Structures are given as C-alpha cells and as structure tokens.
From TrEMBL:
This is Homoserine dehydrogenase. Belongs to the homoserine dehydrogenase family. It catalyses: L-homoserine + NAD(+) = L-aspartate 4-semialdehyde + NADH + H(+). Gene3D superfamilies: 3.30.70.260, Dihydrodipicolinate Reductase, domain 2 (3.30.360.10), NAD(P)-binding Rossmann-like Domain (3.40.50.720). It is an enzyme of class 1 (oxidoreductase). Pathway: Amino-acid biosynthesis; L-threonine biosynthesis; L-threonine from L-aspartate: step 3/5; Amino-acid biosynthesis; L-methionine biosynthesis via de novo pathway; L-homoserine from L-aspartate: step 3/3.
Amino acid sequence: MKPVKVGVCGLGTVGSGTVNVLLRNAGILKARTGREIQLTQIGARRPNPACDTTGIDVTTDIFEVAANPEIDIVVELIGGYDVALQLVKTAIENGKHVVTANKALIAEHGNEIFTLAREKNVIVAYEAGVAGGIPAIKALREGLVANRISWLAGIINGTGNFILTEMKDRGSPFADVLKEAQELGYAEADPTFDVEGIDAAHKLAILAANAFGTPLMFDKTYTEGISRVTPDDLRYAQELGYRIKHLGIARQREGGVELRVHPTLIPESHLLASVNGVMNSVLVQGDAVGQTMYYGPGAGSEPTASAVVADIADIARLVDAPSAAVPPLPYSAGTTEVAALPIGDVVAASYLRMRVKDHPGVLMRVTEALGQYGINIDALLQKEKREIAGAADIVLLTHEIKESVLMSAIQAIEALDDITGKVAHIRVEHLD
Ligand SMILES: NC(=O)C1=CN([C@@H]2O[C@H](COP(=O)(O)OP(=O)(O)OC[C@H]3O[C@@H](n4cnc5c(N)ncnc54)[C@H](O)[C@@H]3O)[C@@H](O)[C@H]2O)C=CC1
Ligand SMILES: N[C@@H](CC=O)C(=O)O
Ligand code: NA
C-alpha cells in the first residue's frame, strides 16, 4: 500500500513535537495502522532546533502544503484565526483531510469548517485541541458512544491549573508562574486566553458539542478566568476542606444546556482536587456507564503531539476507505439547536469572601442580609487581617441557591456600612 503523506504547517512547540513523534515512532505507527505515514512536507517560517527536518521538504509558504497534490493530510499547527482558517479551508477545498490543535479555530469557526468538510467528504480532527494529550474527544465519540451524557466537568487549561497549583503549594506570585508556564510552552500566544478562561471555554464548547450532539456554542459559554482568585482564597478554601480549581462544566438541563467556565471550590477528597500542575482531567457522567474520568497532560510539546499523531493515524486507517465507511460527522458537533441557559438560572452552593470593618455585630448583619434572601450558611470563617488595622475577612459557604437570587443578596451585603469593597464569589460543586 502506498504511504499516507502528511504536511505539517507550523513548527513551534506542537509542530516540532509532532515532527519528532512522527519520525521517532514511524515503525510502530506503521505496524499499528498498516500504513506508512510519511512526513512529506513542512511549512515553517524558520527552522526549529527542537526538531531535525533533514531530508524533509521545508517551505516557508504553508499554502504550498495545502496545495501539494502529493499530500493526503494537512496538519495545522500555526494557531490563531485568520490565516489558520484560510489554510484549513484551502486544504479542505483541495480534498485533504485536516488535523489541527487549534481549539480557538474549531470553537469559533467549527460549524462552518465541518459543513465544508462534509461537502468535500474529508475529516477534520482536533483531539489535540481539547485537554492536550488526553484522548478526551475519542472517549466521548467512541468509548462512550452508547451513553446519553448528562454532564461533564473538567480541568481543561493546563496553564491555569499550573498557576493555581504553584500559587497554592509554593506561594509563588501569579505573574512569575505565568512566565514559567510560557517558558515551558504551555501558554497560548496571548496568555489572557489562559488566565481569563477563554481557552477553557473553547475546549468546553467542543466537549459539549461532542457530548450532547449540539452545534458549537462558544459564544454562549459563561466565562470567568483565574485572575481574581487570591492567595487568601486558596488558603481559606483549604481550611474549609476544599480546593479551588478552574473548571469547565457542561450540563443538560430541562430547557437547555449549562455551559460555564469559572474557578470552583471542590471537596479536597474529590479526585479532581488532586489534578495538579499542567495536568488536565475530564469527568463524564453517562447513563449506562456512570462516571468515567480521564487524566493526563493538558499542554506541552510531545503530550500534545501525541494527540495530533493519534488523529493522523486514525485518518491513515480511513484514507482509502469508501466514503460510506468514513464516519459522517466524524469528530464534530451535531446539528440539533439547543438553548444555552443564562448563568443567573444556575443553582449552586457558593463561597463568599468579604473584607469587613471589625465592628461588633458585623457578622450578624451579613447573615441577616443572606437570610432575607432565603440563603442558608453551611460554614463560616472569620479571619482578622493583622496587616490591616481594624479589618477582618468573613468567609462563608452557602447552601445551593439560584444565582440570580445570590447576586441580589451580594448587592445587599455590599451596601452595608461594615463592608469594604466587593464581595468575592466562587461557585462550589460536589460533582457527585
Ligand atoms: N502549546 C501547547 O501546549 C498546546 C498548543 N495547542 C495549540 O496548538 C497550536 C500551536 O501552538 P504552539 O505550537 O504552542 O504555538 P507556537 O507559537 O509555539 O507555534 C506556532 C508556530 O507557527 C508558526 N507560524 C505562524 N503563522 C505562520 C505562517 N503563516 N506560516 C508559517 N508558520 C507560521 C510560528 O512561527 C510558530 O513557529 C495553537 O493553536 C495552540 O492553541 C494545543 C494544545 C496544547
Ligand atoms: N494553553 C493551553 C494549551 C493547551 O491547550 C493550556 O494551557 O491548556
Ligand atoms: Na485531547
């Protein structure tokens, strides 16, 4: 059988890892797929010393790769939107299968890309874009195909989890840890995507589309990042028996789906609470299997390349299959429109932290304000702030309450004379 020919565009962190894995493991890939997978051409602005491209045709024009009649699979690893979209569409128009790690592109332009791919009868695969090296899309699409999925939740941004872990364990300042994550190749070109939750929202939109068979709904995903989580929050959560993790949560509800990305307190005994550093994890609730959980590196050169090459191998097995054998919407969203529920309708327990003037009766006034809205308190800490004369922090865990009601109660608390500044609010989930 003739080799399956691959063109890789972009030779940065993931591109160089992909070249290394394809070359190093060519023998086992051939044995496992029954086909030789040949790295035929690379599109790169400049060489990358992290990989050896000796003997491979390298061009500075990535569109040459997309037009190369020899090539069966174009691998998009340049990142970003405009040029990447153009490249992917050109490759599809030219009848090539596409593998990409670009979750931003898939989350925001996937509906258009998949429509075009369907017309041209080619596969667009994006396993590397969601939870890095974890075969999360494959688990949903194949391993859990028998299940009706009611919800999933995951730690799906490696940089964010790395920052929260280092802040908690070593007390490292946010900016220093972010710099380290960038040096390790974990962060996005624009790291605000990581710290403000946009990257996790891209991934959640893709996971939800696969789990629920809906179109991609990134624009309807409620998104909060980790930038407002303070070292005090991490410490107080720990004292209360919780950890703060940045979670993406997708849940089927009557009337629509919840799609939300935000810092979350989870019990320290929950398995997700032990997912640290750059590791990611996705927890899925299916009606037949119950809960399954997937764990592994969410970012980095070869962990991400592992998923890119897995997609290449899957396509290699199918390139010569009759079109009927190629899964119709292979790695993609379905088409059933569904409503995204507003965040105000979410019912969750909450962590509230407020800076108060340490006057007698202040705690009573806060609990009264909550009581007026029917909000019960589950746990409470009051911490004197030694470094600020006359100030204390009150930290509360509330029972489950509709978020729109909680917001009204928070406004009432912030209006009290004893409260300085804003009330910090982090949702609590038990995920059972
Ligand atoms: N770094 C990671 O751990 C992960 C990254 N990703 C995704 O993989 C993609 C690539 O990310 P990285 O490798 O980290 O980025 P990177 O910045 O290290 O690499 C991108 C490379 O593409 C090249 N490039 C950009 N435009 C080009 C053009 N027009 N022509 C030729 N070369 C061009 C750049 O020069 C650079 O070498 C992104 O979509 C990212 O979101 C996904 C999962 C993990
Ligand atoms: N910046 C992303 C890279 C992988 O998707 C992350 O940190 O998770
Ligand atoms: Na993955």
